[in-house]
């Protein structure tokens, strides 16, 4: 029987970075669900479809070809056979991902793929609705958060390092809008489920958060490991 850790939380809380490190320590597969929604947004943009156009998005979902591969804990995502792992990391696609994720037609297709992957392997999965909707029976559920200012600062620094010309205020406003979109959508909104353990990463180093999650996994999920390096 496969094991799973669900890490949910708002944009910029550090979910992907933390999930990658936790999965590496455990020898599990890391699944970045946000990348899947980014791929949908990229397809919409490439097709000239507004990412807020539900009807337009519904028209491309049936034939949408998204695939994921894992190599040494590195996830790559493919759209129509092309590696778009870097192309989906722009500010435009980031904003579009939040838009497309609000529509049931998109979420249902992505959730189907996510559950299929989790059924066949031990996974650490991060997103907005993993513990509440995608994997409600996950062995451990974490709700990772941080202040809006700190999350915006992290994203701002990340975009600058990639050479993108943005302002901190623009990134902060996008973060606020994404929080609103994620928390208010009709299907599987971002929520902290009662059985999730909340970790505020505002003042914590990455490795401190990772250690906390490993501790909770060993002690709260009743899973014992002889050696976690």
Account of the protein in words:
Helix content is 48%, strand content 17%. With 229 residues, it is α/β, with parallel strands linked by helices. The chain has a single domain (4-220), classed as 3-Layer(aba) Sandwich (Rossmann fold), CATH 3.40.50.300. The strands form two sheets. It has a five-stranded parallel β-sheet with strand order 2-6-1-7-8, sandwiched between helices. Strands 3-4-5 form a three-stranded antiparallel β-sheet, with helices on one face. Helix 7 crosses helix 8 (168-184). It is globular and about 50 Å long. The two termini are 23 Å apart. 41% of the residues are buried.
As laid out across the biggest beta sheet, the strand order is: 2-6-1-7-8
Named CATH topology:
Rossmann fold
By DSSP, the count of extended strands is: 8
Oligomer: single chain
CATH architecture: 3-Layer(aba) Sandwich
Category from helices, strands and their pairing: alpha/beta
> What do we call the CATH homologous superfamily?
P-loop containing nucleotide triphosphate hydrolases
Number of helices: 9
Alpha-carbon Rg, integer? 17 Å
Helix content: 40-55%
Mean pLDDT: 90
CATH class: Alpha Beta
The main sheet comes to:
5 strands, parallel
As for the number of domains, it is: 1
Q: So what's the overall shape?
A: globular
Which runs of at least 5 residues are low in confidence (pLDDT < 50)? 224-229
Offer a concise description of the structure.
The protein has 229 residues and is of the alpha/beta class. The chain is built from nine helices and eight strands. The chain has a single domain (4-220), classed as P-loop containing nucleotide triphosphate hydrolases (Rossmann fold, 3-Layer(aba) Sandwich).
